[in-house]
Design a protein that fits this description.
Elements lengths: L2 H31 L5 H11 L4 H24 L7 H39 L2 H7 L4 H39 L4 H10 L3 H27 L4 H33 L1
Helix pairs in contact: 1-6, 2-6, 3-4, 3-6, 4-6, 4-7, 4-8, 4-9, 6-7, 6-8, 8-9
Length: 257
């Protein structure tokens, strides 16, 4: 196949994939807002996706805050402004680093799990069996996982924000001889409710995109165990790219509001 043919084939497959994901998103939204709501399944998935991701979220955010504090102190020390470390770390974590890193790390872990579960059910024809029994696979399999993501990811972002600020506090106290009260007062001085809500708002969009991509790849997996593996890998890559691209447009949107 020529270079043009390969490019055309790759582009066409990407367009078809985007169209399929968009159609699935349109099918998910009405099922999220109409009964019956499977609360038991939602709680189970919330425990699997959210509670079991708290350690990962806390550790990543804590050391991210510590690294941010170190880098910021090094850069500001040249201008004699290292006492502004609280403002820089707090706003950076709450606005960007908290929601984005949580979505990337937890989204990759959770998205891969969703794709693997649904992909295994697809290649073993369990999804087809549900359809033959008159059940709706999207309402039965996708909606509970989506609700768990929509609830769990913003809560994890709150945890990440707190851990990131604490990480900056530890470095400020241990390395820079700044008192905890001074650091926290400067952290909260410039922070507004809009900064917190913008980060939480991003996490809701991230959660929806993660759920849609993971569910689509799982429901369209084929080729046995190898196909499930490829779908899982594609999910992790697609989630990482989608989160970063979406973050840019959401940042522009929230700054314009």
């Amino acid at each position: 196949m020529s270079v043009f043919g390969r490019f055309y084939d790759l582009t066409w497959r990407r367009v078809r994939h985007f169209g399929g994901v968009s159609l699935l998103a349109g099918q998910i939204v009405p099922r999220l807002s109409t009964p019956p709501f499977q609360l038991r399944e939602v709680v189970q998935h919330l425990e699997t996706m959210g509670v079991r991701s708290t350690n990962l979220t806390a550790v990543i955010a804590l050391f991210t805050g510590m690294v941010m504090a170190l880098q910021t102190a090094y850069a500001l020390s040249a201008f004699g402004a290292k006492f502004y470390i609280g403002e820089v770390v707090g706003l950076s974590v709450v606005r960007e680093l908290g929601p984005v890193l949580t979505a990337l790390m937890v989204g990759g872990r959770v998205g891969a799990g969703i794709t693997a579960e649904l992909g295994t059910m697809t290649v073993t024809e369990q999804v087809d069996a549900l359809r033959s029994l008159g059940a709706d696979p999207i309402r039965k399999l996708v909606a509970p996982r989506m609700w768990a993501l929509l609830v769990g990811l913003p809560l994890l972002v709150v945890l990440a924000d707190a851990a990131g600020v604490i990480g900056g506090l530890l470095i400020s106290v241990w390395e820079l001889d700044i008192s905890p009260g001074f650091y926290m007062s400067h952290t909260l001085r410039l922070m507004e409710y809009s900064d917190v809500t913008s980060g939480l708002g991003k996490s809701v969009f991230f959660a929806f995109v993660i759920g849609v991509i993971a569910s689509y790849n799982g429901l369209h997996a084929e080729g046995g165990a190898d196909g499930v593996g490829r779908a899982t890998t594609d999910t992790v890559v697609a989630i990482a790219i989608s989160v970063l691209v979406l973050d840019f447009f959401l940042t522009k949107l929230f700054l314009a509001l």
